[in-house]
Amino acid sequence: MDQQPVIPINIILASNSPRRKQLLQDAGVQFRVFTPTEPVDETLDADLLAQPEEAVKKLAERKAGAAVQEVLAQNPVGLGFVIGADTMVVLDGEIFGKPYSADHAREMLRKLSGKTHQVITGVSVWMMLLNETEENGGDGNVSIGFRTFTETSEVTFKELTEEDINAYVATGETIDKAGAYGIQGYGAMFVSRIEGDYFSVMGLPLCPLCRMLRA
Fold it and tell me: Does the predicted model carry a pTM greater than 0.90?
């Protein structure tokens, strides 16, 4: 009986985030990082800004979709999964992205002080099945599909003093973090309570993602 050829499987993380990379590595996932050569448009219209869950899903899809386009241009073969993700901090309907300055980071942290906010992470997983070209015995067809989901966690901050805020901003940790803090770093000292997925707050909900990949 002839054996069926083994289909190569590639998992691609469409993100430069060191936190997402570390989480996948710690979970034992074999993957490579690929980010598009052109920056992904992260602007959102007013309708999406009013719906944080839809907004974060849209950004995750854009990031994964941009990587998919460039990967396809390389004429790969096999089964590929491209993972795109985006994380937003939301307080009373206001979306907190990454701060553009130290003063902006201080402003965000003052607003979060003593309150409960939501951390929403959107993940978009694109599956590509790429057959061998006719020259290699295949039909050259490409099948693409994707699924996107969100994970929302509730994070409560203790009351922060100006000394707390200034000392934290001075660490430089606020620069590339949504909401101007990282729960896996010095920012953990501000968190008095968390309800939900800790890894999602870090930027990648591992349990539902790995369950999807296994399926």
Answer: no
Active site residue 26: no
CA dist 122 and 57 (Å) reads 5
Q: Are 119 and 155 in contact (CB under 8 A)?
A: yes
CA distance readout (Å), 136 to 130, 133, 140: 13, 5, 9
Contacts of 34 (CB under 8 A, 6+ apart): 12, 13, 14, 67, 70, 71, 82
Nearest of 199, 211, 158 to residue 20 by alpha carbon: 199
State the Cα–Cα distance between residues 102 and 172, nearest whole angstrom: 9
Which residue among the candidates 2, 45, 86, 103 is catalytic per the annotation?
86
Residue 117 above 70 pLDDT? yes
Q: Which amino acid is at 133?
A: T
Calpha distance 41→62 (Å, rounded): 8
Q: Cβ(101)–Cβ(68) under 8 Å?
A: no
